[in-house]
Amino acid sequence: METLVNDRLLQDRNTMEFNVSTSTPSTSAESLDTVKTRHPRRSLNVSGPVQSYHARLKNFWYPVAFSADLKDDTMVPTDCFEEPWVIFRGKDGKPGCVQNTCAHRACPLHLGSVNEGRIQCPYHGWEYSTDGKCEKMPSTRLLNIKIRALPCLEQEGMIWIWPGDDPPTANLPSLLPPSEFQIHAEIVMELPVEHGLLLDNLLDLAHAPFTHTSTFAKGWSVPSLVKFLTPASGLQGYWDPYPIDMEFRPPCMVLSTIGISKPGKLEGQNTGECSTHLHQLHVCLPSSRQKTRLLYRMSLDFAPVLKHVPFIQYLWRHFAEKVLNEDLRLVLGQQERMLNGANVWNWPVSYDKLGVRYRLWRDAVEQGSKRLPFEKSA
């Protein structure tokens, strides 16, 4: 890892004065009106109703489902950027993604069935292949009709789609845990929050001893200082004093490795000093401006016998939902106030670094910038 530094993006609260304004909904980074310091603080204004997603944000590969959830005769309906899609497997077993709306009478296709690699509308039996072409029209003459289809690939146990207008990139990023880990749980949840707010939450560990008092952070002491240490231009790093490594992986993924001694307990000052670890993947798919499809994968580098415990997947899901519900009541409150004009990034401090960098990355993508604001010039 590059030399770890504390960049000057976030300055101490006592070194400046500023005027707060939440009247203009925006997600752009901007300088404060009143700054009395030689190192001006960068403010983020994330307030008001969520604006329509910029087209540039769609030009990425997005994971939408786990492979295990897509059988040959099943479908996975999902929304992405406020458009309905449905995923199913074609005759060759490869996944495809088509619009979840029949061309005939706009019936949702996921209410139908999959027959010989084609999705059949439950209304009049029209059947579509994975490229969107209608191949069967019972009781009438076959017309040359095609519905929208997205590029769709499968890799390492996940189904990915490309919702943008630009040609898709050739390679998919790897989201698998390191080789010494085994995957123990894959969970999907539909959440009533905007995906950016959920990412803000996942990229923040300082809230744990205050929010997660009934789950994994029960009994944690409150450190006198929490820091997130990163390379000068990176989207990854580690937490101090917690033995946790974390990375934001564009466009909507959070990967973390947690050093533990036994369930619910932390050990050591960094992950390298820990003998056992938990690896997590969170995918926050932007379903709509107030809805997120969350894909969660949990892996361990110890206790492989747990994979064979009957019904263990229900226990993992129960625990994941319990942790998430501790966050959700707070994030829903943030969302309500944000929609009414409050700025959810009104006063970032040092431990907010990774969340701020996510917001700056998102702004840079939407503005078409080739370089992130916190990257050093060559």
TrEMBL record:
Domain Rieske, chain residue ranges per copy: 61-161
Subcellular location: Plastid, Chloroplast
Biased composition range(s): Polar residues: 19-31
Key words of the record: 2Fe-2S, Chloroplast, Iron, Iron-sulfur, Metal-binding, Oxidoreductase, Plastid, Transit peptide
Residue ranges of the region described as Disordered: 19-40
PROSITE patterns to which the protein is assigned, alphabetical: RIESKE (PS51296), RING_HYDROXYL_ALPHA (PS00570)
Record GO terms (molecular function): 2 iron, 2 sulfur cluster binding; chlorophyllide a oxygenase activity; iron ion binding
GO cellular component, one term: chloroplast
PANTHER family per UniProt: CHLOROPHYLLIDE A OXYGENASE, CHLOROPLASTIC (PTHR21266:SF19), IRON-SULFUR DOMAIN CONTAINING PROTEIN (PTHR21266)
Protein name (database record): Chlorophyllide a oxygenase, chloroplastic
